[in-house]
Amino acid sequence: MSSVSQTNVQQQTGKSLVASLFSACKQLKKIHVSTLLLALILAAPLISISIEAFAPNSDTFAHIQQTVLADYVINTCLLALGVSILVISIGVPLAWLIAICDFRFKGFFQWALVLPLAMPAYIVAYTYTDLFDYAGPIQTNLRNWFGWQSATDYYFFDIRSLPGAIIVLALVLYPYVYLMVRAGFLEQQANLTHVARTMGYSPTKCFFKVSVPVARNAIIASTALVLMESIADFATVKYFAVSTLTTAIYDTWLGYYDLAAAAKLSIIMVAGIFILLYFERLQNGKKQTHNDAKLSAQKLVYQLNKKQSFAAFCFCSLILLVSFVAPLIILADYAIDYFSQAWNDKLLQFTLNSLIIAALTAIIAIVFSLLLNFSLRIKPNKLHKSSLKVASSGYAIPGTVMAIGVLIPLAFLDNQINALAESLNLSAPGLLLSGSFIAIVLAHSIRFIAIANKGIEASYSKVSPSLDMVAKTMGQTSFNIFRKVHFALIRKSVLVAGLLIFVESMKELPAALLLRPFDYQTLPTYVFQYASTEQLEIAALGAIIIVVVGLIPLIVINRSIEKN
Amino acid sequence: MKILSFLLLAVVTLPSFAKDDTVNIYSFRQAFLIEPILQQFTEQTGIKTKVVFAEKGLIERIKREGKYSPADVVLTSNFSKLLQLSDENLTQAFNHADINANIPAHFRDQNGHWVALTKRIRNIYAAKTRVASPFTLSYEDLAKPEFKGKICTRSGKHPYNLGLVASMIAHHGEAQTKTWLLAVKENLARKPQGNDRAQVKAISEGLCDVSLGNSYYFGKMITDPAQKAWADSVHIIYPNQQNRGAHVNVSGAAVAKHAPNKQNAIKLIAFLASEQAQQAYSSLNFEYPVNPQVKPADLVASWGEFKEDTLPLTKVAENRSAALKLIDGVKFDL
Asked: What is residue A9's three-state secondary structure?
């Protein structure tokens, strides 16, 4: 009797196992196809630009190569190098101080140091130009104190320069390093620090010998993001009159009317980024460790002595002051003085437009990135690997070029739709996709999905594959493995990535400028139209709204890292 | 789900372009600069205006949108964009008796694809106290050694400077223009940066003595309380009055090739050429009207009479690419 029921049970489990395996296979296929489709959508701008690059072009490219290209490349490299060095030397010590050490006001700095991320770099550039300019308060006061008459009487550094651009970009981008490396430090097993302490390592020695080497992956990954962002920057370098490769791209396209040559330059830039990412992956591959869900509960912190504590306080305050407080005060000053001119009912509408675009961008980028990462996880083949790589390349494409890359396929689709409608004797619906806010959301999603890919990939790598195997033997479908196992373990990094994308999308200007529908404004386009005509005073209120809206998600991000 | 259905609704209701009572404008000019004039147009005709403003990539957008592009009118802030539009076959011919009557033939395309709407002069701004005999200055003078370290300008590759350099090539040939450019570069007080107004600001701060800038910026600075001091520190100079006259550029308008509301587009352009709008251009934006019946606004007129360079704008456009190559060749911006 009992043996019969046992066989029954065995048969049933056998059947259900076969059934679930079968359905898993079906799902796998679906996932496979959808991954391909996704990769295609995400790569569409890059493909469009590549096709453009092969169009026959004039001698523009050769001319630029002979004249200014070398300078542009050097400037781009110096910019990328300078920003990288600066963000590491700001972000890593800050991350370590906050994660490992204890000092006064640490609780405040812990979240406050994230805030500069809400500042668009070009806004900081505008405010700092006003501050450090000849007519700005600093030079004016210096002249009054020392009795200097004109610019020829003294030396003052020029903020509109390559070093100026490096400093401004580093000030708004260091939070990437701070956030990701801090999370890295917090995840480090506390006993490492403990061993270091028992060996009598000083805090400094522990920082260099233990923490930094172990957090290497996080440092490299976050710096890679910063690097891509600074290479793709246009607004800040343009304002500071620094010619970089993005300048060359815009010049060839809009000056020489040569989209083909511009596309070639963009492809070269993306290729450079691929090489960088390859090295980054090489580094990452060397030290892949899976945390087997065993986190030491006790956290060890260095209690800094009075002097050290004061130094830490000064360092944190200085960074916060120059990266966030000072620009915000300048903006607030303008916003108050010019409030009646700047405030109008439309501003609320623009804010709403920006919020909708940022939220949709975050959702779409996260869903796409999860699908890509998941399919790579369950089927780690070359196709999925390269899908993920291609999907991350958008971050390095300058915004306006990305906008064109999105416009080309969407306008093509629109034309097909209209032609189809006409052939069916229906009235042409007009342009549904290009020139709509959907186009803006798509451009933003493709540009910022790299942020999600980075975060989710890193988080995924810590989920031990043995968990998948266990789940599989328990008869779970792939979707369930994803939902119940993976997502549960990586949901924090998903949240962080989503919020970061939201903040970035709030700040992003060029795609909205080119792709927007009639009479449609986002906060950045509103700010830009005044700032670009030297009317920062009127733009300030809009800029402050961008910053304030960005603050809320940033504080949530910070909380979630700390709870880890 | 709710969000999704909202979105769908938005997508379905969005494309409401092809209405009879609207005109869709793609503008290279800041929307808020032309808004008051467009309001007058709507009041007069009942035709609503819809605007997309972008400095970069608008031509590419029209090109890619193709047959179904909602654009009716394209407004540009310089001549080369007008020509690029018609060269790339993105415009169509239009004809209207009022437009022909209000805009002289040399400010209209021979084939009727575009019209110029306003004139702007490429002026030299000179520090009131520091430049000897400023009123006889010419563009060629900027290469003189006496201006070493005293010149400020925006990027050489900005369309306004590009037009000037192209006209120099038309007058003097490439070799001579290159020598001139190199000398001007040697005379720069700082790397080219900022916009035209920022250069006048720099003069008021004593960073340099002369700069290049369009005429209407002078009016904008004078009427802006925060910038009046900048304008007060300089003379506005109309260069080359002893010989060929000052370099002129134009803003203009064209009708898009696939304009869904072509008649409204022509009505708008006819309005922009009318005395009412031309006066508004001059009094609000301090530009020079192309309509000969309209006198410049008082403030603009107070800057004095002057001689214009009569070199045809098409000659300037022909040399545009050569100018850009020269500017890159001498690394003017670096």
From this structure: helix
Interface mutation vs chain A, best among B60, B89, B165, most A CBs within 10 Å? B60
Nearest to A411 among B32, B64, B197 (CB): B64
What percentage of residues in chain A have a pLDDT greater than 90?
29
Confirm if B319 and B169 have CB atoms less than 8 A apart: yes
From the number of C-beta atoms within 10 Å of its C-beta (0-12, 13-18, 19+), residue A160 rates as buried
Average pLDDT, chain A: 84
The answer for B80, left when phi > 0, alpha when psi is -120 to 50, beta otherwise, is alpha
For residues A550 and A118, is the Cβ–Cβ distance under 8 A?
yes
Q: In chain B, where does the domain assigned CATH 3.40.190.10 lie?
A: 20-119+249-297, 121-247+307-329
What is the tens place of the pLDDT at every residue in A84-142?
999 999 999 999 999 888 888 998 999 999 999 999 998 999 899 888 888 788 888 89
Give the Cα separation of A28 and A478 in Å (integer): 8
pLDDT over 60 at B192, yes or no: yes
Rounded distance, CA A51 to CA A350, Å? 35
The CA dihedral of A465, A468, A474, A475, to the nearest 10 degrees, is: -140
Query: Which chain A residue has its CA at the smallest distance from B331's CA?
Result: A68
Average pLDDT over residues B251-256: 96
* Count of residues in chain A: 564
| Residues of chain B contacting A407 with CB distance shorter than 8 Å | 57, 60-61, 64
Task: Classify residue A12 by burial, with Cβ atoms within 10 Å: 0-12, 13-18, 19+.
Answer: exposed
Identify the H or E element spanning B221.
Answer: helix B216-223
Q: Cβ B64–A408 below 8 Å, yes or no?
A: yes
The CA distance from B253 to A229, in Å, is 37
- What CA–CA distances, in Å, run from A526 to A342, A497, A519, A541, B28? 10, 26, 11, 10, 15
Q: Which of B207, B328, B331, B332 to mutate to test the interface with A (most CBs of A within 10 A)?
A: B328
HSE (CB half, 13 Å, CA atoms) of A217? 22
CATH superfamily of the B121-247+307-329 domain? Periplasmic binding protein-like II (3.40.190.10)
List of domains in chain A = 17-53+344-564 (1.10.3720.10), 57-337 (1.10.3720.10)
Q: What's chain B's length in residues?
A: 334
Q: CA torsion A174→A177→A181→A182, rounded to 10°?
A: 30
Write the single-letter amino acid at B286.
F
Contact A415 B67 (CB under 8 A): yes
* Sign of the torsion angle spanned by Cα atoms A543, A548, A549, A553: positive
Provide the shortest C-alpha distance from residue A297 to chain B (in Å): 40
Nearest CA in chain B to A437: B11
Assigned token pair, A126:
């505008």
Would the pLDDT of B11 be above 60?
no
Partner residues linked to B123 by β-bridges = B213
Mutate which of A49, A61, A129, A519 to test chain B, going by most B C-beta atoms within 10 A? A519
- State the architecture of B20-119+249-297 in CATH terms: 3-Layer(aba) Sandwich (3.40)
**Among B17, B206, B331, whose Cβ lies nearest the Cβ of A67?**
B331
Contact at 8 Å (CB) between A523 and A466? no
Q: Do A160 and B206 touch (CB under 8 A)?
A: no
Closest Cα in chain B to A140: B205
Segment A193-211, tens digit of pLDDT: 777 777 778 778 888 888 8
